[in-house]
Amino acid sequence: MNAVQVAPAPAPHATGVELVRRAARGPVRRRRLVIAGTAVLVLALFAARTLLGDYTITVPDFFRILTGTQIPGASFILMEVKLPRAVLAVLVGFAFGVAGAVFQATLRNPLASPDVIGISAGASASAVVAIVAFGWSGSMVSLAAVVGALGCAVVIRLVAGPGGTHRLVLAGIGLAAAMLSVIHYFFTRADEWDTQLVLRWLTGSVSQANWSQIGVLALILVVLLPLVAWAARGLRVVELGEETAYALGEGPARQALLLVLATLLAAVGVAAAGPVAFVAFLSGPIARFLNAGRTTLLASGFVGAALLVGGDYIGDYAVGNVNFPVGVVTGALGAPFLLWLVATGRTGRRAS
Predict the structure, then answer these.
(1) Of 306, 265, 290, 260, nearest to 86 (Cα)?
(2) 134 Cβ contact list (under 8 Å, min separation 6)
(3) What pTM was estimated for this model as a whole?
(4) Which residue from 51, 188, 259, 260 has the least number of CB within 10 angstroms?
């Protein structure tokens, strides 16, 4: 009689390894779903911004115009008004979203975004001074905005010293108030023509988008975003705290590099569209919520793009014939969230 052969029981460690693998696959799968979902949302809003509105353009006509066919009226509206505005909103929103997420994750504070701690205000103040005091225009104003943002970042870091993120946030808020005073002072001294330019640097708008501006911004982002991705490889470790990050090899140099790159992203975004309020501030927390509390820079960028494109569409068509700059819409969304963070005490260090 043949003996019944029993299969050997799996080694105890095999089950444990499989459980670990399954646990690791869950967050990866969710992250991919969040990135794909936010990307689809941006695409849908982009389509709405370019095809819908006061002048509707059909999908076949959209592709015909892109391939060079001239359609009276539609070609000009799409190529000179709707499309550049939507493309600029996507690029600027993505830059703001990534910059805000890097600041909040690196400094472990949801208030530490460029538009809250004064970096965007510094860029705006420099641009306004360049317009009113020196009579500059075009690319020189944009360059002044970038220099102003970097200068404010340095001042905030020096004033805050080694006192932690709370001191940095407080220093940034104080500097932002000072920069707003500078903006308002020069606004009162601006002539009628300059007033229209200065208003753009008070609220933020993509209404003046043009293809040369988009080309320069796209080229800068092609350089900056891969650098941010490379520098952010240890971002999850940085979020655990300074001591843990240092122990695991993520020293202050890597964190400083991340903050410099994020400052540049915010600066070029402000230089292209002005200080669009709260896009950088909102993008990171929304993406973290969708991704179960984990920072995802790519998803944060897509959320920022969605906020800017959607906000621009709402500002144009939500209230009859009145057109609001996109900064007014995003400011209305971000202010209640900021108050909620303060009221619930969720402004301290996180280590998720």
Answers:
(1) 306
(2) none
(3) 0.88
(4) 188
